[in-house]
Amino acid sequence: MSAQRARLGVLISGGGSNLQALLDAAGQADFPAEVACVVSNMPTAYGLERARKAGVRAEVVDHKGFASKADFEAALHGVLADAGVQWVCLAGFMRLVSADFLKHFPGRVLNIHPSLLPAFPGLHAQRQALERGVKVAGCTVHFVDAGTDTGPIIAQAAVPVLAQDDEASLSARILAEEHRLYPLAVRLAVTGAVTLDGMRTRVDAIVTGDGAALRSPGAPK
Ligand code: GAR
């Protein structure tokens, strides 16, 4: 019999393409986690549809329906607990979670952010990168702490910023990497291959890749 798979709760606010990447990964027999439920704070989020299509429980907990953040998070936790969730993945979830919420899942809340943190935390990370003129951008999966995009980094992927890029084209290039990175980071986290070491993480896994640098702009031919 295969080992018990970790039960993920995925929190979304929108399209849910990262959720889809996790659902697709969970569809593989050797992936060490399953998506136990999806919760959106936005009733119209397309990600809810993705969850239903995958046969996964999908719930709306609309922050607007609660008098306080504490009440909203209590409802959120209620759904996650009811679904037996062990790990929480924020996937385009556009609400900050509080330290009190994190206490329910100590060291077990992950987030994906479309920048090479600690650069460009917060909203519109890709726009911030373009405005600052960086030549390499990317995405980060990190453990969530009570700050905004500040928690210990698990994994990152880099992409070049091209001269002709606008926010849409750069976002699309980063998003494609997000879809590869999030399942990898979840695998590392739930199998215990990544552990916390203060503000850093230690990754105890076979590292692939040849260590080659990404240069942007590339060398002339
Ligand atoms: C992704 O680019 C994700 O990194 C970003 O929102 C998008 C959600 O797309 N998250 C943040 O900016 C959080 N600070 P998706 O709904 O298609 O996964």
TrEMBL record:
Query: Its function?
Result: Catalyzes the transfer of a formyl group from 10-formyltetrahydrofolate to 5-phospho-ribosyl-glycinamide (GAR), producing 5-phospho-ribosyl-N-formylglycinamide (FGAR) and tetrahydrofolate.
Q: Does Endoplasmic reticulum show up as a keyword for this record?
A: no
The uppermost taxa in this organism's lineage are:
Bacteria, Pseudomonadati, Myxococcota, Myxococcia, Myxococcales
One Gene Ontology cellular component annotation? cytosol
Give binding positions for (6R)-10-formyltetrahydrofolate.
K69, M94, R95, L96, V97, N111
Q: Which residues bind N(1)-(5-phospho-beta-D-ribosyl)glycinamide?
A: G16, S17, N18
Which PANTHER family does the record match to this protein? Answer: PHOSPHORIBOSYLGLYCINAMIDE FORMYLTRANSFERASE
The EC number(s) attached to this protein equal 2.1.2.2
Q: In which pathway does it act?
A: Purine metabolism; IMP biosynthesis via de novo pathway; N(2)-formyl-N(1)-(5-phospho-D-ribosyl)glycinamide from N(1)-(5-phospho-D-ribosyl)glycinamide (10-formyl THF route): step 1/1
Keywords, comma-separated and alphabetical: Purine biosynthesis, Transferase
Catalytic activity of the protein: N(1)-(5-phospho-beta-D-ribosyl)glycinamide + (6R)-10-formyltetrahydrofolate = N(2)-formyl-N(1)-(5-phospho-beta-D-ribosyl)glycinamide + (6S)-5,6,7,8-tetrahydrofolate + H(+)
- Give the InterPro entries listed for this entry: Formyl_transf_N, Formyl_transf_N_sf, GART
List the Gene Ontology MF annotations in alphabetical order. phosphoribosylglycinamide formyltransferase activity
Top EC class, one word: transferase
Q: Which family does it belong to?
A: Belongs to the GART family.
Presence of keyword Transferase: yes
Boundaries of every Formyl transferase N-terminal domain copy = 7-186
Q: Which SUPFAM superfamilies match?
A: Formyltransferase
Q: What is this protein called?
A: Phosphoribosylglycinamide formyltransferase
GO BP:
'de novo' IMP biosynthetic process
Ranges in coiled-coil conformation: none
Site described as Raises pKa of active site His, located at: D149
The residues responsible for catalysis, as annotated, are H113
